[in-house]
Amino acid sequence: MTADQPGVPLLLPLELQLERGPGPLLPQIEAALAPHGRPLRWAITAVEAGSEPVLLTLEAVVLQAARP
Amino acid sequence: MAVATPPLVTMLVIPTGIGCEQGGYAGDGLPVARLLAAASGSLITHPNVMNAAALYWSDSRIHYVEGWALDRFSACQLALRPVRRQRVGLLLDAAIEPELKARHLQAADACRAALGLTIGPVLSTDAPLGVSLHRGPSGASWGRLERPDALLRAGERLRAAGATAIAVVARFPDDAGSPALEAYRAGSGVDALAGAEAVISHLLGDHLGIPCAHAPALSPLPLDPGLDPRAAGEELGHTFLPCVLVGLSRAPDLMDWRLAGPRVGAVPVEGAAATTAGNPGLAGNPGLDCAGADTPLITPQALAAVVAPAGALGGAAVLAAAERGVPLITVVNPCLLNVTAAALGLEAAGCTVLPARSYSEAAGLVLALREGLNPESLLRPLVSLS
Q1: For the CA atoms of chain A, what is the radius of gyration?
Q2: How far apart are CA B107 and CA B87, in angstroms?
Q3: Do A30 and B267 touch (CB under 8 A)?
Q4: Alpha-carbon dihedral of residues B130, B135, B140, B144, nearest 10 degrees?
Q5: What are the C-alpha distances in Å from B49 to residues A52, B66, B239, B351?
Q6: Cβ distance of A46 and B206 shorter than 8 Å
Q7: The whole model's pTM is what?
């Protein structure tokens, strides 16, 4: 059985770009990652200097539930 | 008689797999942890800082907390309960060859015989985990598992058999001779294994809600006379396991704190929540010989300072703490990233940021906070109030 078969959850690497909104960052990041799976580990790995709004690059690994 | 100043609960974060000049190799963050533990009296830090393969340091002021739990603690979802000892289950990847497996079992036996640790049960996964290593666009190391389900099943069996903490050993791809490994051994590269290690321990911790940490199983490397001292810890023996067993043996219990903290209704700790039936407040199996209900908890609200590399402030633990008002001491520690307090606008958002040019300076700031000194009073010029 391989990872893309039914019954096996998937660990997926992810790269996202996110426009920073007003207020705390953490909920913005959690909301951006949530549609992709359960975030296991993530970090902001770059911030685009001088852009408006500020553009953040996120790298993450998310867990996607097993297909039935 | 003078009364000792109470500890200042401090968190040290040196993120894994981003090539930090200090703490990006084989346990070379450990002297920093010892210094900050002495300055603070209570230091929470993670395996990447403490693990030096065959080398380790045990200090009752240092609390060994894997990254997944560190993130949840920082976000007020977990509290920590110190214990005298944990029963450390040993989870071995079925892909480990018989001779390498025997080496790991002997390392565990050595820790029982020489250090008095409580280790076992031992079991192997029902399928090879299929670890692969990757680099993100930033150059940070990450990793994947083909069979996360096999890891989680084995963890569940160990917990059901009485393990209160779990040391995982996965077979990692040998990359002897690769440019990345050569750069790392020469002291100028990223730890290519670290990202995958973090994914494994985060996955298991998230699922089980008990302390978990990882050691990779690898074939021995040929002698490198030019080996950087910071990478030397990994070339002393056949396994990287002893430091993990020592760290986990006194890792604090993880207590569900979502109902006690200020963030009621925050993102559920799914793995932990699944294990709390019949034992409210406890995320997983309790450690051994804890002093029961009288054992003082380390609550997230007690966290009073975070120390992190100045260019790597974009992780979950650091952001969660900074955004709830915990002072953030940012230390010059070059790495792949340049995600600074200024770039993230942390000070503009009301976070308290205290820059330090070195970990020695950071220790001075921690000591100042512990003594109730305003760090500004140590700087010159001292601007007039008027």
Answers
A1: 14
A2: 16
A3: yes
A4: -20
A5: 36, 10, 18, 25
A6: no
A7: 0.91
In A41-60, the residues whose Cβ lies within 8 Å of chain B are 41-47, 49, 54, 56-57, 59
Report which residue type is found at B274.
A
The 10s digit of each residue's pLDDT in B34-72 is 999 999 999 999 999 999 999 999 999 999 999 999 999
Residue identified by tokens 């970090």 is: A43
Average pLDDT, chain B: 90
**Main-chain phi, psi angles of A62, to 5 degrees:** -120, 155
- Alpha carbons A64 and A43: distance in angstroms, whole number: 18
Task: Please provide the DSSP assignment of B219-271 as one string.
Answer: PPPPP-TT--GGGGGGGSSS-SHHHHHHHHHTPPEEEE-TTTSS-TT-S--HH
**Beta strands across the sheet bearing B87-92:** B118-124, B87-92, B165-171, B212-217
Burial B171-198 (b: 16+ CB within 10 A, else e): bbeebeeeeebeebbebebbbbbbbbbb
CA distance B147 to chain A (A): 6
Interchain pair A63, B203: CB under 8 A: yes
Pairing of strands A10-19, A55-64: antiparallel
